[in-house]
Amino acid sequence: MKRVIPEYTTLEDILQDAIDKENDAREFYLAAAGLAQAAGIRDFLLEMADMEKGHAELLTRKLDSVRSDQTVIDGILSSFDDEPEQDTGD
Asked: What angle do CA 8, 63, 23 make, to 5 degrees?
């Protein structure tokens, strides 16, 4: 199966999509574990679900960091005027 990769416009979009996919995968493994009759298989699937949860948490921390950095950059940029002040000769 060939995966279609959407056109992203920001790093935030990429990270959010990755978080969503990790959460979807976690739900899949949890559902599969609920259906598993063999304890070994169920344990394996729950372990996979935990790994996906960890991935989503890692990506969420990165997304928060990117957003925080952007907030700082936006604040710095907003402190500059679009037009330089004109000397009135006073």
From this structure: 80
Grade residue 79 by pLDDT with cuts at 50, 70 and 90.
confident
The set of residues, in sequence order, having a beta carbon less than 8 Å from that of 59 and lying 6+ positions away, is: 15, 18, 19, 22
pLDDT digits (tens, 9 = 90+) for 13-29: 999 999 999 999 999 99
Residue written as tokens 């969503």? 20
The closest of 47, 46, 20 to 35, measured between CA atoms, is 46
Q: Where are the alpha helices (DSSP H) in the chain?
A: 11-35, 39-78
Helix axes 39-78, 11-35, angle to 10 degrees: 160
Q: How is 20-42 classified by DSSP, letter by letter? A: HHHHHHHHHHHHHHHH--SHHHH
